[in-house]
Specification:
The chain is an alpha/beta fold. It has 12 helices and 8 strands. It has a single domain (2-320), classed as Alpha/Beta hydrolase fold, catalytic domain (Rossmann fold, 3-Layer(aba) Sandwich). The chain starts with a helix and ends with a helix.
């Protein structure tokens, strides 16, 4: 019970009670506004925040989780780690996550990321790394295993607490004890869809969407019809990243907490050993996409014990790639 509560604490506290949270959130406006037009029907615009200096040649593209955005707290932590390593960062809002109402993303929408990596401001960097949290980590794994590969291949990828099996992750997330997380995520998603509908770009009655209270319902009623999947089960089967790990083309770090209350360790552990390019690292503390101070990822014996998890994983990407 104590361990379970610890996992919940480290998932919730950094977002609502975190020490120095105001200072972290103040960094949300750092850097320049960035946007990229993505070819689709209809055409959509992706946005984000680019922090860079003229001498920097490495860029880290950072991806958020379901219901998040470029300004999620963990995204800001990762951008801070990039500054500590003197590399540039792009905090990207996935399709529709910026609240503009252009469209909506799904768990395997890697084509958008291919076009982001081709953007002139991104292409100006000689080396790219990608860090993704939760569903953003899932998208990052799709990128690392892309077939055909992107024109600009990242040097390394890190996925933090990714759901490798979408069906299992959805079923677990919809279970009763996770209602607080589910409500938080769905409120954000439904707000985004309401804006889409208000712009005349909707494909489902917004009043129906407003009644959704399960992730599987969201996928069934919003994602599946938008992207033409045969069914929700087909979406989960076709887009789950776990079966794709054997096709990873770049060094890839997959980090997970054994106490994660959102994506259980039991849904991640079976995929260990499925790819020589995947470095699975698990820790016995922390929660979903957030970890206790002093957490050692055991990636580098020379790393300072005071280094944040983000600092350690960025260092791993720079060394591995």
């Amino acid at each position: 019970m104590t361990a379970t509560l610890s996992g919940h604490l480290w998932t919730i506290a950094p977002t609502v009670l975190g020490r120095g949270l105001a200072r972290i959130r103040a960094r949300a406006t750092h850097g320049q506004r960035w946007h990229c037009t993505v070819s689709d029907d209809p055409e959509v615009t992706l946005t984000g925040r680019l922090e860079s200096a003229p001498h920097q040649r490495t860029l880290c593209v950072i991806l958020h989780g379901l219901g998040g955005s470029a300004n999620s707290v963990y995204m800001l932590r990762c951008a801070t780690a990039c500054r500590e390593h003197d590399i540039a960062s792009l905090r990207l809002s996935l399709r529709g996550a910026d609240g503009r109402g252009d469209d909506m993303y799904h768990a395997g929408l890697v084509g958008d990321l291919h076009q982001v990596l081709d953007h002139p401001l991104v292409a100006a960097f000689s080396r790219l790394i990608v860090v993704g949290y939760s569903l953003g980590g899932h998208v990052a794994l799709h990128l690392a295993a892309s077939d055909p590969p992107p024109k600009r291949k990242p040097a390394a990828v890190a996925a933090i607490c990714p759901p490798l099996d979408l069906a299992a992750a959805s079923a677990g997330f919809d279970a009763g004890p996770r209602w607080l997380y589910r409500r938080h995520v769905l409120e954000s998603l439904k707000s985004s869809y309401a804006t889409i509908a208000a712009r005349g770009r909707g494909w489902v009655d917004p009043h129906l969407v407003a009644t959704i209270d399960r992730i599987r319902q969201w996928d069934d009623q919003v994602v599946v019809p938008r992207f033409g999947f045969a069914s929700t089960d087909a979406y989960y089967r076709q887009m789950s990243a776990g079966p794709r790990l054997s096709r990873l083309a770049v060094p890839t770090l997959i980090l997970h907490s054994r106490l994660d209350p959102v994506v259980p360790w039991s849904a991640v552990a079976p995929w260990r050993g499925t790819s020589p390019r995947a470095c699975f690292t698990d820790v016995a503390s922390g929660g979903h996409c957030s970890f206790a101070p002093g957490t050692d990822l055991r990636l580098d014996p020379r790393a300072s014990r005071a280094a944040s998890v983000e600092h350690q994983l960025i260092r791993w990407c720079l060394r591995a790639g």
